[in-house]
Amino acid sequence: MTSYAPPVSDITFLLGEVFDFDGLMRRLPGHEDVNADLAVSILDEAGKFCVGVLEPLNRSGDEEGCRLENGAVSTPKGFPEAYRAFVEAGWAGLSGDPEYSGQGLPRVVQILVDEMISSVNLSFGLFPGLTRGAVEAISRHANSDLKATYLPKMISGEWTGAMALTEAAAGTDLGLLTTKAEPVGDGSYRIKGTKIFISSGDHDFGGNIIHLILARLPGAPKGVKGISLFLAPKFLIGKDGSLGARNDMSVGSLEHKMGIHAQPTCVMNYDGAIGWLVGEAGRGLNAMFTMMNAERLFVGIQGLGIAEAANQKATGYARERLQGRSSDGTRGPVAIIEHPDVRRMLLTGRSLADASRALAIWTAMQMDIAARHPDEAARREADGFVALLTPVVKAAFTDFGFETAVASQQVLGGHGYIREWGMEQFVRDARITQIYEGTNGVQALDLVSRKLPMEDGALASRFFALIEQDLRTAADLPAAGVITKATAQALGRLETTTRHLLAARAAPAEAGAAAADYLRLFALVAFGWVWVRMAAQAATGQTPLHRRKLATATFFAERVLPQTLWLEAAIISGAASLMDIEAELL
Amino acid sequence: MTSYAPPVSDITFLLGEVFDFDGLMRRLPGHEDVNADLAVSILDEAGKFCVGVLEPLNRSGDEEGCRLENGAVSTPKGFPEAYRAFVEAGWAGLSGDPEYSGQGLPRVVQILVDEMISSVNLSFGLFPGLTRGAVEAISRHANSDLKATYLPKMISGEWTGAMALTEAAAGTDLGLLTTKAEPVGDGSYRIKGTKIFISSGDHDFGGNIIHLILARLPGAPKGVKGISLFLAPKFLIGKDGSLGARNDMSVGSLEHKMGIHAQPTCVMNYDGAIGWLVGEAGRGLNAMFTMMNAERLFVGIQGLGIAEAANQKATGYARERLQGRSSDGTRGPVAIIEHPDVRRMLLTGRSLADASRALAIWTAMQMDIAARHPDEAARREADGFVALLTPVVKAAFTDFGFETAVASQQVLGGHGYIREWGMEQFVRDARITQIYEGTNGVQALDLVSRKLPMEDGALASRFFALIEQDLRTAADLPAAGVITKATAQALGRLETTTRHLLAARAAPAEAGAAAADYLRLFALVAFGWVWVRMAAQAATGQTPLHRRKLATATFFAERVLPQTLWLEAAIISGAASLMDIEAELL
C-alpha cells in the first residue's frame, strides 16, 4: 500500500497560480514576509512529519484505542511521544499570536497543515485542533490575567484545551444544559455537572488540560441567555506558573465510538471544579460562537483530509490491482484503473477533494483579510464571506469527505472491508466530522436561516457576483468551456432557489425543509466556481498537473454538477411533503 | 430504545391489497394452499423469533466477535444456541424442497423472513442464507448421490454451507483463480489452494459444513472456462450418513472486518481436501451463476432489512428526543421529529425501505412464477424479469440500505456515533452488502452490458410497458396524482438513457461509464412504479396505514425522484470525461 503523499504540488498550483497568495500577503500588515515559497517549504516539512511520525500511528491507534484506568486516560502506544515531538517541532503554535509564543503565520498555512494531519491521523489532529479553538475563545473573551496565565503554554502546545459543551439532554439545543457554576467570592467559581462527548477531556501527554465549560450561574434565566463560559484547568496553577493541586474534575468514562479510537472522548464529571468566568455572564454561547468559524473550518478541513488520503490510497490500489479485461475486450487482466466505473469513483473523489482545498484556501484568505487588512471595508466584506461560507465548508466538505471515503473503500472491493488496508477506518473516522461541531443539519439551518437572510440576501448576492465575474473572465477560454458553462447553469439554479427561500421566509418550515439540499447545491456551485478558476489557469499551461486539472474540471462539470438539477427540483417542491404528515404516522 | 417491530401490517397491505398474492398462489401448482393469511401467520412467528432470540444477540455478537483458537472457530456467546433453536423451529427449511425435508413455501415468504432476520442480526442471517445458496447449486447441478447425501441435512439446517470462490488475486475476476483439484481415480478429487473472504467457513454450531469450491482440473484452460465446482465437506460422510474423519481443510485465519463481526469470515486452506465434482467439468462458473439470482436477491434483502431497522430506531428516537424549538418558534423543546430536516432523513429512508419491500415481493413472485407456473410462456417471461431485476435489487437495495443507515445514524447526532445505541453497527454491517456477492459496480455492469441488450432491448421494454400500464390505471386517481406524474417523467428519463446506451453499444467504455448511474436511475423508476401501485391502493382507503402510504408516495415523488434528473444528465454526458484522461494523471 502506497503511503500518503502530501499534495504539495497541488498546493503550489493553488497558492502560486490560482490565488494570488503573495499579493494578498503583501497587503496584510504582519504577513508581509510570508509568500508561497515560504508556505510551501513549511508544508514540505509538515508533510514529512505527517508521513514519518503521525501516519504510522494511525492504524495502530485505531486498533489499540484509549484506556481509562484508575481515573487516568492512556492514549495508544506512541501518541504521547508523537505529541511531544509535534510540540517540540513548533507545529502547535504555527498560527498562534506571537505575543503569546505563537509564530503568527496566516490561516491559509494553518489549514493546509491541518489538512495533512487530518489525512494521516484524524484522532491526533483533534488534540491541537481543539486547543486552538480554546485559545481562540480565551484570546477574544478572557481577561488579561487568564490570557497571561494560559495562552503562552496553550499556544506552544505544552498544555492542551478541551471544550465542554454537550450534556446528555443538551446537544444541538445547548439552552437545555444544567451544569452549574457557583461563585466562591474570590472571583472564582465552583462548577458542578456532567458533560458528555468531550474530546481530549483527558490524556497522558503531560502538561495541563484547560477545560472551557458552559454552565449556569445561580438565578440565570432559562435557555441560552442563562449560559456562561468558564475556564477550569485540570491542575490549578501556582503563582509562579507551576502546576499545583488537581482540580475537582474526573473522567466518568470513555465513549465507545465508531471511529477516532485514538481520541479519548470523555464523559467529564465536574465535581465542584474551580473555574473562572470567560467573557460576560450570560454571554457564554456568544463566546463560543466567536470561535466557531475557525473550528468549523477546521472540521471541514478534516473532511478534505480524509477525502484526499482515501482517494490517494484507492488510486494507488487501482493502479496495481489487476482484474478483468479492458472495455474493448482485447486485454486482460488489466489494472482496474482502466475500468470506467472505477474511474468514476476515483474522479468523483478527486474532483471534490481538489475543489474543497481550493475553496478552503479562498475562505482562509478571507479570514486572514478579516483579521489584518488595513481597510475596514475589506475586512467587513471578507468577514461576511467567512460567515456565509463557514456552514458550507463544514457540512459539504465533511459530507463529500465521507462519500469519498466510502467510494474509495468500494474501489478495493472486499479488501476495502477488512481492517488491514485502512480504508474502512477512513469511513469510520470521517463519519464523526458530519456530526460534531454542530451536525451538518444544523449547519444547513445556519446557512438558510441566518446567513442567507443577512442584509436581506445581499451577502449571498455579493458572493454570487464574485462567481459571475470569474465566469465572464473564463468565457474566452475554450479549454475551460465545459466547466464554465456548467457552472453558469448551476449558478442559475442556486439563484432561483435562493430567491425561492428568501420569498418563503414567512413560512416557518420552508427553510428547514430546503436546508440540507440547499447547502449541497450551494457547495456544488462554489466548487464549480473554484474549478472554473483552476481550469482557467490550467488552460494556460501544458504540464501534467495542468492537464490533470483541466480533465478533472470537465469530469466535475459533466458528472457531478448535474446533481444541482435534482437539488433545485427538490428544494422548489417545498415543505408540504415533509410537514403535512402527522408525526404519529411517520 | 424501542426494539424492532416486524413490519407485518405493511406486509399484509402489500400481499393482500397491492399484489394479488392469493390469486397468484392459486395458479401455482404446489402452492395452492398458500395464501396471505398463512404467510402473515408465519411472518408473525418469524418476527417473534427475531425479536426474542436474534435481536438480543446483535450488539453482543458485534462486540464479542468470533475467535479462532487451536484451529477451531468460536462464534459469539449465544449464537450456537440461537442457531440450534432456529433449526429446531424449522426456519432453515422454509422454502426448501419437500423432497429433501423442506417445507416448500414460496420465495415470497422466504424473502420476507429473510428481511426480518437481516433487520435484527445480519451476521446470523448469513449462516442460513449461504446454506440456501449452496443447496441451490447442489440441487441444480450435483448428481443424485450427492443430492441424497447432502441436501436433506442442509435443507433442515443441521449442516451449513459455505461458498469458496474468492482468492487473494481473484475477486471480481474469478478467471484468475489458481486453486487446483486433482482426480484421485475413484471419482473423488483432492483440492489444494487458499480461499479468502469465506463466510461461515467454520463455526461451532455442530453438524457439518459443506464447502462449494471453485477450482481448476489438471490441464484446464486459462480463464473462466477452466473453472469447475467441487463439493467438500468439513467431515467426510460414512456410508450410514454419519460424520467421519475430518477432511483436509483448515481455517488459516479470521478476517478482521469493519462489521458483521459475529460472522466468521475465514481464510480457508484446502490442503488436499477430498471433494466431488458438481456439474460438468469446466462449467463451474455456470453452476455458480444459476444460484446467483437467489443469492443476489437475498443480499438485496439484507439492505432492505438494515434500512427498515435503522429507520425504525431513528424514528423512535426522534419521537422521544426533545431538542430545539418548533419551526414557528412558539414551542420548545419539541420532539425532533417535528424538525423538517429530521423528517427529510426519516421519510427518505422510509420511502426507500417501503419501495424496496414492494419491489422485492414483486421480484420474488416472478421467481415463484418462473419456478412453478403451468404456462411455459409465463415462466419464461417471469424468468426474464428476474434476470433484469436481479442486479437492480442487489445493488440499489444495498446502496439505499447503507444510505438509510447513515441518515438514520445522523438523526441521533452524537448518540449515533457511539456504539451503545447500535446505529453505527447498522452502518458498518450494511457496508458489506454493497461489496460482496459481486460489488455493486459489477451489478451495474451486469445490468447495462448483459441484461439491457437482451433481446435487443425488448426485455427492458417489456418491463417499462408494465410500468406504463400501471401509470395509465392510476391516472384517474387524484390522490395518487403526484407520484403518478413524477414516475411518468422519470420513466421518460429512463427510456431516453436506455436508448442512448443501446445506441452506444459499439463504444466499449460507454456502458461501463454509465453503469452505476443507470442502475440507480432504473431502481428509482422501479420504486416510483411500486409507489404508484401502493398509492393507487392507498387512495381507496382511509386507515392510518393508507394515509401514511399516500404521504410517503408524495414525499418520494417530490424529494427523491428528482435525482433522476441528475442521473439522466450524467449518463447522457457520455464516457469521454472518464476515459480521455491518461491513467498516470489520475
Task: Give a written overview of the molecule.
The structure is a homodimer of 586-residue chains. The first copy, chain A, is an alpha+beta fold and 586 residues long. Among the domains of chain A are: 8-141, Butyryl-Coa Dehydrogenase, subunit A, domain 1; 161-283, Butyryl-CoA Dehydrogenase, subunit A, domain 2, CATH 2.40.110; 446-578. Helix content of chain A is 58%, strand content 12%. Chain A has 20 helices and 11 strands. The first copy, chain A, has helices spanning 8-18, 21-27, 36-54, 56-64, 79-88, 107-120, 122-141, 144-156, 284-320, 340-372, 376-411, 414-417, 423-433, 440-451, 458-474, 481-503, 508-538, 544-560, 563-572, 576-579, and strands spanning 67-69, 72-74, 160-164, 180-183, 189-199, 209-216, 227-233, 235-237, 243-246, 249-254, 265-278. In chain A, strands 3, 4, 5, 6, 7, 10 and 11 form a 7-stranded mixed beta sheet that branches. Chain A has a two-stranded antiparallel ribbon with strand order 1-2. In chain A, α11 (376-411) packs antiparallel against α13. The longest helix of chain A has 37 residues, at 284-320. Chain A is globular, with a radius of gyration of 24 Å. The model of chain A has no long low-confidence stretch (mean pLDDT 97). At the A-B interface, α9, α10, α11, α12 and α13 of A face α9, α10, α11, α12 and α13 of B. Chains A, B: Keywords: FAD, Flavoprotein, Oxidoreductase. Chains A, B: Belongs to the acyl-CoA dehydrogenase family. Chains A, B: Residues 282-448 form the Acyl-CoA dehydrogenase/oxidase C-terminal domain. Chains A, B: GO terms for molecular function: flavin adenine dinucleotide binding; oxidoreductase activity, acting on the CH-CH group of donors. Chains A, B: Its cofactor is FAD.
